[in-house]
Model the fold of this input.
Amino acid sequence: MPTSAVSSAPLITIEDLFDAAARLKGVAVRTPLLPLAIGEGLDAVVVWLKPEMLQRGGAFKFRGAYTYLSRLSAAERGRGVVAPSSGNHAQAVALAALIFGVPAVAVMPTTVSPAKRAGAERLGARVELAGTTTQDRMNRALELVERDGLTLVPPYDHPWIIAGQGTVGLEVIDDHPEADTVLVPVGGGGLSSGVAAAIKLRNPHTRVIGVEPEGAPKLTKAREAGHPVLLSDTSSIADGLLAVRVGDVPFAHHQAYLDDVVTVNDADMRHAMRFLLDRGKLVAEPSGAITLAALLNGTVPRTPGTVCILSGGNIEWPGLRETIGA
Done:
């Protein structure tokens, strides 16, 4: 069962989630639930996939970014926005800014993948590179807020972002009200906390399990300590899940609503990416495939009521070929 919340950070309500869903209606893609058979013949178990690689911008991040910008005043948006991001949040904010007709700056790591940088630039964002960690990017973004008057769009540590990402969970329960387990990737915690809140507020009996890389166990360590902790370093092919610390507001939601968190290694993520390509006809980046990896390797039992949230698919052909060994 979830442990008690230890943070004073405010928890989003079901009304917050419904408000975000209303803002996103007609703007975001309502991604489907797709069946996927794991196993052979009569022994196969059919699980369900929530393919957020089909979302605008190629990942779930558009939900939170658009929700956030929609709640800003016209003056706040008009100053321009800045997004510290490993890639997907930057593309999402760039797209939302394009829709609202305001300028956007993306602060991305020096190790950003070509696909994610090109995506942000294609959507009109000016890209700045800053270090390799989440804190490097945030520090530079805050400098731009101070110097240029830009409005910060945080990647995960804010109730508006969490509510937007949580609409994924609302849709899961609407489409599969008898889901018994929902697996969700864990990076900084915006998606995992929003989904956990949405699922538990709609169906308290559904288990919600976070999945993070072995090389970036920021939520695992935080739950052991009872509070967010700063990892000394992170390493994984799942570049979207390499936050060195889970956010304070997400962690409060994790403690209130998340049942468990497990870790997955890079080899299992590669296998899941290949499986999705071969069996599901879906292209997922490593961060997007991590939930299915936890099923394929047996870390989480497979049941017909299992839903895997595939968080995104922003990976270019050379990167995909290199990652999966094609």
Summary: The chain has 13 helices and ten strands. The first strand starts at residue 34 and ends at 38.
